[in-house]
Amino acid sequence: MAEKAKVAIFISGRGSNMAALLYASLLSDSAFEVVLVAANDPEAEGLALAEAEGVSTFALSHKGMVRSDHDAAMEKAARDAGADYIVLAGYMRILTDEFATRWEGRMLNIHPSLLPKYPGLDTHQRAIDAGDSHGGVSVHLVTPELDAGEVLGQVKVAIRQGETADSLAERVRFAEHQLYPRVVSEYVGRENDPEFLLGKVRELALALPQCHERESHGSPGWRAGSEKSGKYFAYFNDQHHGSEHVAVLVKTGSMDELLDLVEAQPQAYFKPAYYGASGWIGVILNRPGLDWDHVAGWLERSWRSVAPKSATKLMDAADQF
Asked: At 235, which helix (H) or strand (E)?
């Protein structure tokens, strides 16, 4: 069974969305587990619920603190808990740009409107005042710009005749509790989806100069140089030859380097069957917290080992700008 992604949830109050996420995480098919519930209010009701369910908690009031210092303390708590992702669930704090940037692609938020409509506060009343037929809820990635990140999922909720902001909010909350756990599980579960991982590797590999894709022994591979005489620098490995890993195979500098890496970081590397004897190493992709910049670095290094000098010179020239 694939390892579940570790999620820290930030709250400010009763934590109804946190509770929906926590109980969804206990289902056998959930792609995530909750490793921390953290609050900017030590009296937040949701903390007691999390503690009752055996989840670690952290609380620190933001009052009297510089925003960046409070963010740093919350972030440290998440990192200390081993979180791969941070999920904001009624966390009523605007994060510093630096915090949001550090967790780009790994921090999610839920917002009670059909974004990009009505970012910020008073969303239900604004939808009613505008004469909209529907309000709703959006789950999106967090970016430095408020409520502007990529929308990952939405649910529409009809606005009825005589609707008030409170009555609409009550029904939107039901939709929130259905949507948020599903979107979080689907999003963090991509790290175990071979098609998603292949797409990411393909994008990185084909961005390199004079690179083309060619199948090898039933698996995608990437070659540097011409279509006729190019040399392979990477292969995609989807649990081949009895391996449990989804990986990209790349060239190392020596067998000693390969063995040292596998011994020191078995969670990140393995020696693949057949290819390993020739100095190829498997960079494991289906693991939480994968650093795609690290994967890109391996692809470029392997590409440089076989690419024509004209191509590497082109890359070096581009790097100077």
From this structure: strand 231-238
Is 17 known as a binding-site position? yes
Is 172 in the same domain as 236? no
Opening angle at CA 52, ends 47 and 55, nearest 5: 70
170 lies in the same domain as 87: yes
Helix, strand, or coil here: 15? coil
110 is known to lie in a ligand binding site: no
90 in Cβ contact with 12 (< 8 Å): yes
Non-local (6+) Cβ contacts of 236 within 8 A are 198, 201, 202, 219, 220, 221, 247, 248, 249
Q: Which of 158, 192, 226 is the last residue of a domain?
A: 192
The reply to whether 192 sits in an annotated binding site is no
Instruction: Please say if 212 is a catalytic residue.
Output: no
305 is in an annotated binding site: no
Q: What is the pTM of this model?
A: 0.80
User: Which residues are within 8 A (CB) of 241 and not within 5 positions of it... i.e. 6 or more apart?
Assistant: 272, 273, 274
What are the structure tokens assigned to 294, written together? 């690290």
State the Cα–Cα distance between residues 163 and 128, nearest whole angstrom: 7
| Segment 173-216, tens digit of pLDDT | 999 999 999 999 999 998 889 999 999 999 999 999 999 999 98
Catalytic residue among 62, 70, 111, 124: 111
